[in-house]
Amino acid sequence: MLPVIRVHSFESMGTFDGPGLRLVAFLQGCNFRCLYCANPDTIARQCEKTKFLPGDEILRRALSEKAFFGRRGGITFSGGEPTLQAKALIPLCRELKLNGIHICIDTNGSIMNRDTQVLFETVDMVLLDCKQLNADRHRILTGRQNTVTLKTAELLSEMKKPVRLRYVVVPGYSDSPEDIDRLGQAFSRFSNIDRVEVLPYHTYGKHKYEALGWEYQLDGVREPSHEEIDQIVDRLEAYFPCVWAQ
Fold it and tell me: What is the pLDDT of residues 200-218, one digit of tens each?
């Protein structure tokens, strides 16, 4: 039997978290406390919705949906922060690979150890979430430091692992020209970056904070306009050959 994985929920036919149609497994537990988190109920190590699933069950579910994946789709492990469960994910990902299923990991890149390295070697693509390059502003946004994310990017570059770099645009927190230029200057040297994904801040998860009895700390922060996102895309295109906005 494969190791048990803490899973919050699944999404079938996902089109946002990696190439093609995907089964998205949202894992339970995260080491960041992002102010804009759309899934705050995945932060704790477990909650009422947490499922403790043997990897075999996740494998069976992926195989049952494989016909819909086509040539480009597969499974994405998101969260939460999936690398917190890297050791348990490694044997599951090896079985998924043996069955011809494309694997993505969506990660904040903040955990660097032998298990995460083996996990990155095993999967097909990494969706790397960069929150902010400025250390102080990153700490405000996430409650954590950002020193490891760039090291993770360097490791993935050495592996020649395909990466999609993701960046959430939060007005007043991560949208200044300096923020965007710093992102471009830090990551444009990595030729393994498949594309940059610009993700506008939204309040879709606000009701979850209310349900949890938590204060929504970005209350009053507006969503960026289409024009502002277009300007950021234009600015990033000076650094990267492929920039995409949600």
Answer: 999 988 999 999 999 999 9
CA distance 26 to 186: 29
Give the C-alpha separation, 203 to 6, whole Å.
Answer: 26
Of 145, 144, 187, 199, nearest to 163 by C-alpha is: 187
Rounded distance, CA 22 to CA 73, Å? 5
- Whole domain around residue 57: which residue ranges? 4-245
pTM, two decimal places: 0.97
Between CA 19 and CA 28, with CA 23 as vertex, the angle to 5 degrees is 115
State whether residue 191 is helix, strand or coil.
coil
- Domain of residue 150, CATH code: 3.20.20.70
Q: Are 24 and 107 in contact (CB under 8 A)?
A: no
Dist. CA 180–CA 153, nearest whole Å = 17
Per-residue exposure over 175-210, b if at least 16 CB sit within 10 Å of its own CB, e if not:
beeebbeebbebbbebeebbebbbbbbeeeeeebbe
Q: Are 39 and 26 in contact (CB under 8 A)?
A: yes
Interval 24-37: pLDDT, tens: 999 999 999 999 99
Please give the tally of structural domains in the chain: 1
